[in-house]
Structure formats: structure tokens, C-alpha cells
Amino acid sequence: MVENRPWLTFLTHFVLILGVIIVVFPVYIAVIAATHGPTALSSGMMPMLPGAELWNNVVQVWTEDRRGVAPFWLMAWNSLWMAIIITVGKIAISIISAYAIVYFRFPGRVLAFWLIFITLMLPVEVRIIPTFAVVANLGMLNSYVGLTLPLIASATATFLFRQFFMTIPDELMEAARVDGAGPIKFFRDILLPLSRTNIAALCVILFIYGWMQYLWPMLVTTDPKYYTLMMGVKRMAAVADADPQWNIIMAAVVMAMLPPVLIVIFMQRLFVKGLVETEK
Amino acid sequence: MDTKRTVFPSQGLPYLLVAPQLIITLIFFIWPAGQAVKSSFEREDPFGLSTSFVGLMHYGRLFQDPAYLASMGRTALFALAVTVISMGLALVLATAVNRLIRSGTAYSTLLLWPYAVSPVVAGILWWFIFNSTTGILPYVLEFFGVDWNHQLNGGQAMILIIIAASWKQISYNFLFFLAGLQSVPQSLNEAAAIDGAGPFKRFWTIVFPLLSPTTFFLMIVNLNYTMFDTFGVIDATTAGGPNQATNTLVYKVYSDGYIGLNLGSSSAQSVILMLFVIVLTVIQFRYVERRVQY
Amino acid sequence: MASIDLKGVRKVYPGNVTAIHSVDLSIEDGELVVLVGPSGCGKSTLLRMIAGLETITDGTISIGADVVNNKEPAERDIAMVFQNYALYPHMSVRQNLEYGLKNRGTPREEIDRRVAEAARVLEIAPFLDRKPRQLSGGQRQRVAMGRAIVRQPKAFLFDEPLSNLDAKLRGQMRIEIRRLQRSLKTTSVYVTHDQLEAMTLADRLVVMNGGRIEQVGKPIELYDRPASLFVAGFIGSPPMNLLPVETLAAVAGATMPTLTPGADIVGIRPDQVVLGGGDGIALSGTVELIEPVGGESHLYVRVEGIEQALILVQQGRANVGEAERIDFVLPIQALHGFNRESGRRVE
User: Fold this and answer.
1) ipTM computed for the complex
2) What's in the keyword line of the UniProt record (chain B) (predicted)?
3) pLDDT at B9
């Protein structure tokens, strides 16, 4: 810091504490709601301090079946699988296509690059119905394949790997070739180990991405067996006006948002790297 | 587009390597997008038995439809408000964290995690807070004489989705502003201090101009976010209501097409949005030079 | 071990840029040949063509009895040492040395034996389990050498292997490479832009310029009888003085000898100029600058009527001061004649 001004330091902390309060506020309210019994929330001013019912509420969420949604454990399982398949799938197909584009020269290479680039311009939100039609025609509704496969193409991950491969010295590949490594061996023995941190950073970002998916699962699943948490908590909340069990709903919401939040908090370094690098 | 100085001589392998990505792209991205374009020029009879080419009819109707034009206006207002609010707050917070040496990381962690809250959960959280029967904010607002009911009042519904969408986006903007601030060389700040500029003057004359690439980049990203990624926020809070007051362009594609089954109009709306994303993406890649040159 | 033969080798890049114009070169078994030239002269390209990292547009390259034009680098049985060493950053030193052998299916005991031997010769045994980033520049260089040695290939290819080292280390490693190559007797091609390195290492020196070979020969032959103006200027430090004949004649007057017809540029090595009087072209000038480099001194002398300053080398300390006038002689037998048009030597 250039100079020491106590009032400015005070202002800095004041601003930040205020910011943190704003950011934490909605989740704090949800957590408080999750700790109370059903009666505390049904009327008037909701309490601002934690109650003692958290464990009961959590147990209820996990054990009781609710109308219109699948059991919570099943939705959590589906969300987990969906996030994992999307993460692994995106990384796998992106790293190999980036490898092809950087380490080979073949007719159609530039075309392939632009086709991948185009996916950036076609978010699922703008092609809801025709994409749904394709998935329906392929018989992929209500399946993990339908939930994940259409989301697996990734321009950003491909660009990230391409960028990273370009920074690897050319000589490394040449040395490997002189050492008798073909394209597969080079990829497995040299490139993959060197991409470790990039893969880890992408895992963090893509897991969060997969976990957050809402519109797509809503479109392709009608069978509650395939509902994900994001759909489930939304459906639970939607009936809350008729049957207000806010403590249970908020307990479910808090648990549904917890896995990615914990990932961001405990893998902050990888998370920041992943987010900043994919936007390059 | 560059490759390595030397490349592997294989003939078939590279095609095998790009195939999975390309097949998925073609089946689930390009083909549906093409279908959307195609059906935006067609009309399907009520039984779905035959289609006929109708040219620009759907587009023509859209641009004469007051509901669509109103949706455009609302989307613009929403996008602008969210971009300004979330970027403004994020810049203030990032500047503050950048001033601190030790406690900065702790604050960062506390400010970053909402990134991991999904739009739909963000919507539920704020919907709960603003809920007219049990919500805490309507209770507080009542003391100020405000009668809050976003289920009836369109303006209040708009405020609700703006708050929820902005809240969710603060962390993202914060992260990029902080990265941008940290790449401003400390020596420039010191030189300005020696030249007699105080902290606020330094910020506006030195730091903020150097941050402009980040700011521009975030503007594009935020527009993209408010246009498309806020679907969950809206679906969880207002579902486009009351009386269309929060029916943004993307939500309208969904509600007209998936719910209302008005295929032609929904496709035309899709195509218009596609053009919009294409423009944003091109701007982002062509004109955003985020590395500051000295 | 094997000889390497290049016949009519050309390299044309897409866009019709010719990097190598028809090169013929025979490298004998066990010989260390140095390719030297300014950057962009094609020396690295030629080396990489021998390695199989660049395709060959025209001509043939054979290693031993085999034409290797269409062979993968790995099939050519060569080893290469790169300028930036190209060590695999995620592998330990041992794994770096083993990698090429493993890929060839060398038996485990044989790998261990060769690695131990290379580690002993190069004195890198203490670092075998470290990662490259934990090593100094000189140590990395040794590991890169080790990776080549363990392979026991037909030929070593060196691509400016010392240019990332500081001057002192570069001198040490140069001697070590020479010693190693002599004892292993492996055919070697060595690329450098440093003419001192080239002179001291080479059995034979190949000077390249603009994608062509200017001259091939023993270093001292090239120094004594440069075949072209380019070689004359490139080999030797400080460089040869090159003067147009007409200018020199105008200044020298009666002492100017008759030269071979066609020679319109005259060259003389700075250390061949004789201070004081004697037989030859007598000149006098003003000392502009003296560079004492220790054992000898370099004098930059301005002669009235000649555009560029002449460089003279005086053994020991200079016995004149700056701005003083001196007389000196260019002995006739030390003169080199060149033709300006063709750039070639005229005898």
C-alpha cells in the first residue's frame, strides 16, 4: 500500500463487511428457516436466530417422500451422477479434440475448430424445442444419456486446453518423438500428466456447472426417477404456498446448494484458476 | 490458426479425436439450431400433419406483437439493471479487497461462494425472503409503508428478479475485477502517489482506465448472463408473471414454445436470440483485448 | 554408429519459401561436424531434417546404409539434444533417461545399466530422483546429454545445446561434449551460431548462409583459406578486415602489389598486420580506440581515405596510445583476394 490512512482502512473494512452481509443474507435466512419447526415460520415475523430443529428437518428431508418429486436421496444421486458425467465427458472430449487441433495438421482442421466455436453461440435456452425433439427422437428422454450427452460438447474447455497446449514447448513433443513415442504415447505419458492442474481446475468449474443445470433436466425428464435436486427443490418450493413447510423446503434448498459451495470454499485456488482461464 | 512447429503424421487419428466433440455438436447444437431456423419460416397445421413455407410471417407478426416488443423492453431494462448493479457492487468490493494485504483472502472466500449457488436456488432464496406471507423483507417494508406483493405488482416482481439475478452475479464480477486490479502494476500507483494524487483520484485517473478491458469484457459476459442464464431465477420466482411483467425474451421462448406449443413463433424468437448471442460472441472475441499493454 | 549422407537435399516451405537449396554433405562415421551460420541460415532446419522433424522436399538423407526420408524420428536411431533441453518436466531425471529406452522395449537390467553408466560419466548420479525444475541450467544440460547417451544411437544431433548457459558454463560444457564425443566415437552433428564454439568443437566445419553451404572443411582450413567473403567475415574474432582494392590502391600508392585478376576485395586477418615497417602494403593511420582484452589488444585504426576503421591485433599491451599515429604493413602473403560479384575467393 502506498500510504497509511487509518480512516480509509476503516472504510475498506466497513464496505467489505457490508458486502459480506449482503452476500450472506439470503443464505443466512434460509439456514435459520431450516433450523426451526413448522410453526415458527407460518405466521408473522420469522425468527432471526437459529432454532433447534435442524436435525429433525434434515432427517425429514432425507426420509420422507413428498408429493410431485422423487425421494431426496434419489435426486441427490441423480444430480451427482449428472454433474460427474458432464464433468468427465466434457473434459475427455475437449482434451482430445484440442490435442487433434494443436498437434496434427489435417484437412478440415479449421472447419472442426469453427464448428466447436459455434457451440458458444447456441446456448440451450435458444434452441429448446428442436433440441428436445432430437433427444426425444433418439429415445433419450428420461435417461442419464439424455440428461448429460447433449451438454457435453464444450468450446470453452477445448479452448482452454488448446491455449495450454500452445504454451508447451514444441521441443517436448519432438524429444518424445525422437524417444520413440507415437501420438498416443505422447498424449498419455507427457501431455496428460502436464495437464493435471488444468484438468483439476476444469473439474471444479464443470462440476458446479453440471450440478446447477435446471432447464435441461426439466425438459428431458418427466419420470420423477430422473429428477435432479435443482428441479426437486424448485418443485417443492412451488407447492409451498398451498402447503407451507418452509422449514423442510429450506433445509432441502440448503443441502442442495451445499456441495458446489463447499467445493468453491475448499478448492478456491483451483476454482479461481478454472474460472479465469476458461474465459481467456 | 496455429499448430505446433512439427505435427504427428497420422492420417486417421485426428479425425477420431475430434469426432466425439463434432458428433455431439452436430446432433445437439447445429442440427437443432438449423431446425429452429427452418421452422421459423414454416407453419404447421393444428394436427401436425403438414407444414407449409410462410416466409417471414412469424417474424413480421413478432415485431407487430405488442407483447413481444414489451418483452424486449423488459429484457433490456432487466439486463441493464443487473449489469450495472452487480458490476458496480463487485467493483467496490474488489477495490476494497485489493487494498488489504492479509485479510483480503478471507474476504474473497466469503464473497466468492455465491458463484456456486445455482440460478434456480438464488431465485428460491429471494422468493422466500420476499414472500408476502412469511417473508422477512415485506414485513420490514411494511414499516416504511410499502405494500409488497410481487405476485400482483409487476414492478415489484421486476425488482425481485433484478435483485436475485444481481446477487448471484456479484461473485463472478468480483473475481474478474479483483484479477484485473491485481494486474495493475503497483509501481503506477506509487508513481501517481508521488505525483500527489490521493487514493480516490488515483483510482479514477489510473486504476479505472487500466481496468477498462476487464470492465468491457464483464459487460458482455453480464449481458449474456442476464439474457440466458437467468432462466432459473425467473422460473423459480415469478415464472414470467404477474401478467407478463417479468417475461423476458428467453423465458418467452420457453413459455410460448414448450408450454404454449406455438412452434413457429417460438422458433422465430429463438432465431432472433441466436443472432443476439452471435453478435455478443463476435464482439467478445474480436474487440475484447484483455491484456493491458504498456 | 554410422555415416550420414545428404544428397541434393532441399526444403521448401508452403508459400514457396526455400529454406534449404540443394545441400550435399557427407558426414563420416564417428565424426563431429558443426553446422554454423547466422540465424535463419537453415542450419537448424537441416539438422531437424536429419532428425526427421521436418519433411524433406527433395533429395535423400541416409543414415548408415538406409535412406531415412520417410522414416519417423524414432526409427532413425538418432538422439537429439535441444536448446531448451526439452526435459519432461513431470518425470524425474531417471525417468527422463529411461523413457526412450522403455519405448524401445529395452530389458530392465539393460536400462538400469545404461542409466547408471550415463549418470556416472556425466556426474548426475546424485540428482537421478529429482525433477528437472530442481536442477540448475548446467545440470539440466547434462541430463539432456544423458538422455542422448543412454540410447547409444547411430548419431547425436545437437541443436544449439549450450546457448542457454552462461559464458563460463558454456566453456566447460563445450570441453565436456568434445571429450565425451571423442570417447564414444558417435557420429555427431552440432548446430551453433557461435563461431568460437564451432571452431573448437568441430572435426569439420560447415558454414551455411541463406540456405546454402558456403564452405566445408577443417576449422583451421576455413580460418586460413576462407572460400568466400561470407566465410571470411564470419569465421574469426575480431573479424577479417575486408577492403575494396581501389580504395586500398589509392591509399597505398607505390607499395600496392599487383593482385590476381578478378580480385577486387582484399582481406587480412587483424593478427597478420605488422606494426612498424617491413615488406608489404605500407599504411599509416590514427588509433581511434584500444580494446585491451588481456593477452592481446585490439586497435581500431582510422586510415585517411578508407571508410571503415581497420582492426589490428597487437600481442600483449598496446605500445601506442589513443589518437596517436602509427605505421603498419599488410604483408603480401597474408592477403586474401575475393571477387565482389561472385563473393568467392580468387587465388
Assistant:
1) 0.89
2) Cell inner membrane, Cell membrane, Membrane, Transmembrane, Transmembrane helix, Transport
3) 83
Chain B: touching chains (3 or more CB pairs < 8 Å): A, C
Average pLDDT on C125-154 reads 92
- For A63, the 3-state DSSP assignment is helix
Query: Which CATH code for domain C241-346?
Result: 2.40.50.140
Nearest-neighbour CA in chain C from B15: distance (Å): 21
Domain boundaries, chain B: 70-293
In sequence order, the 6+-apart residues with CB closer than 8 A to the CB of A7 are none
Cβ distance C54 to B9 less than 8 Å, yes or no, reads no
Q: How far apart are CA A216 and CA A225, in angstroms?
A: 15
Q: Per-residue pLDDT for chain A (280 aa), expressed as one digit of tens each?
A: 445 678 888 888 999 999 999 999 999 988 988 888 777 766 656 777 877 778 888 888 888 877 777 888 999 999 999 999 999 999 999 999 999 999 999 999 999 999 998 888 888 888 888 888 899 999 999 999 999 999 998 888 998 999 899 999 999 999 999 999 989 999 999 999 999 999 999 999 999 999 999 999 998 998 888 999 998 888 888 776 666 678 888 888 999 999 999 998 888 888 888 888 776 5
Q: What is the CATH code of the structural domain delimited by C4-234? A: 3.40.50.300
Of B39, B92, B277, the CB nearest to A123: B277
Contact between A119 and B127 using a beta-carbon 8 Å cutoff: no
Residue ranges in chain B modelled with pLDDT below 50? 289-294
Burial class of residue B33 in the structure, from the number of CB atoms within 10 Å of its CB (0-12 exposed, 13-18 middle, 19+ buried): buried
> What is B70-293's CATH number?
1.10.3720.10
Q: Dmax of chain C from CA atoms?
A: 78
Q: Which residues contact B5 (CB under 8 A, 6 or more apart)?
A: A170
> If you count residue pairs, one on A and one on C, with CB atoms under 8 Å apart, how many are there?
61
Residues of A in contact with C73 (CB under 8 A): 174, 177-178
Q: What is the C-alpha separation between B42 and B268, in angstroms, rounded?
A: 10
Q: Name which of A174, A185, A196 is nearest C53 (Cβ-Cβ).
A: A174
Residues in C touching B9 (Cβ below 8 Å): 72
A91 touches chain B (CB under 8 A): no
pTM of the model: 0.87
A-contacting chains (≥3 CB pairs under 8 Å): B, C
Shortest distance between the Cα of A64 and any Cα of chain B, in A, equals 21
| Greater pLDDT, C1 or A7 | A7
- Quick one: CA torsion of C313, C315, C319, C321, rounded to 10 degrees? 40
Task: Give dist(CA C221, CA C217) in Å, integer.
Answer: 6
Residue B5, min C-alpha distance to chain A (Å): 7
Shortest CA distance from A190: residue in chain C = C88
Domain with CATH 2.40.50.140 in chain C: 241-346
Other C-beta atoms closer than 10 Å to the C-beta of C19 total 19
Task: List helix spans (H) across C84-213.
Answer: 93-103, 108-122, 137-149, 167-184, 195-201
CA of A128 vs chain B CAs: smallest distance (Å):
7
Q: Where in chain C is the domain with CATH 3.40.50.300?
A: 4-234
Q: How far is CA A253 from the centre of its chain?
A: 16
- Write the class of the CATH domain A76-230+259-279: mainly alpha
**Domain coordinates in residue numbering, chain A:** 76-230+259-279
Question: Using CA atoms, how far apart are residues B61 and B49, in angstroms rounded to an integer?
Answer: 23
Per residue in C284-314, pLDDT (tens digit) is 899 999 999 888 999 999 998 888 899 999 8
Cα Rg, chain A, nearest whole Å: 24
